[in-house]
Specification:
- Helix content is 4%, strand content 43%.
- The protein is mainly β.
- The protein has a 6-stranded antiparallel beta sheet. Strands 2-5-4-6-8 form a 5-stranded mixed beta barrel.
- The longest helix has 5 residues.
């Protein structure tokens, strides 16, 4: 799961939109939006930020179903802001100052050659990391 570090990002930056999922995805998957459809992709500029429902509430790993209306966050509108990323959305090994970008499946990977926009790990925490969105 990925969440904003502060509530202000919800209110000030208009970074969220409602789209349809092209397949089953884990909440926090990165990808791109085209014609109102989210698809996992390498170097994704949007991530799924869905609110868990029913029996899945408060779970770290939550799957959204294909064709469901989902909420995604556009990181290109949030340069310099911080997000919290839980372990389920991170590579097995991550350290401070790592650059994170998505692979073709939408999962985050450490990428020394990542180009903006990407995520920069500011702090490793027990639940995951605090990362800054580095924009163009």
């Amino acid at each position: 799961m990925i969440i904003f570090n502060t509530v202000g990002e919800f209110e000030k930056y208009d970074s969220l939109s409602s789209v349809k999922a092209a397949a089953d995805y884990v909440n926090g998957t990165f990808g791109k939006v085209a014609d109102g459809v989210f698809t996992a992709s390498a170097n994704g500029t949007a991530f799924i930020m869905e609110v868990e429902k029913g029996d899945d509430m408060y779970l770290d790993e939550y799957t959204v179903k294909k064709d469901a209306q989902i909420r995604v966050c556009d990181i290109t509108k949030l340069a310099g802001k911080e997000i919290r990323i839980t372990k389920v959305n991170l590579p097995e090994t991550v350290a401070k100052d790592n650059k994170l970008a998505s692979d073709a499946t939408g999962k985050l990977t450490v990428s020394a050659s990542a180009t903006a926009p990407y995520l920069l790990v500011k702090e490793v925490r027990p639940y995951g990391v605090l990362a800054e969105i580095v924009g163009k």
